[in-house]
Amino acid sequence: MKRPDSSDHLQVGPSAIHGSGLFAAEPLTEGVLIGTYDGPAVDEDGMHVLWVEEEPDHWVGYDGRNCLRYMNHSATPNAEMDGRECYALRDIDSGEEITIDYGWDDEA
């Protein structure tokens, strides 16, 4: 089941990880489209910039303007990005924070 790109099933609130976080407002099933990261393309990094490899060795930054900008990092995420689209890696409970792996080397 694919979900329309709507924030009705998402909410932003205080995060135990960092600042504000993105939370499921209802249960989300594994594989469901959580949403699409929306914002203008930019050349410089910033707090809510998502970098996407759109062609081999060509990265584009998107300065988040919708609620997906509040996803925090986790080494054991429950969601993942495929380009600018975010999908649930597993079932996510209502009230659970939605996290992705920012791609950091946690050992460095």
UniProtKB/TrEMBL annotation:
Molecular function as annotated in GO: methyltransferase activity
Group of enzyme by EC: transferase
Presence of keyword Thylakoid: no
Matching SMART domains: SET (SM00317)
Record flagged with keyword Transferase: yes
Keywords associated with the record: Methyltransferase, Transferase
Example of a GO biological process term: methylation
Transmembrane spans: none
SUPFAM superfamilies membership: SET domain (SSF82199)
EC identifiers of the protein: 2.1.1.-
Pfam families tied to this protein: SET (PF00856)
Cited InterPro entries: SET_dom, SET_dom_sf
Name of this protein: SET domain-containing protein
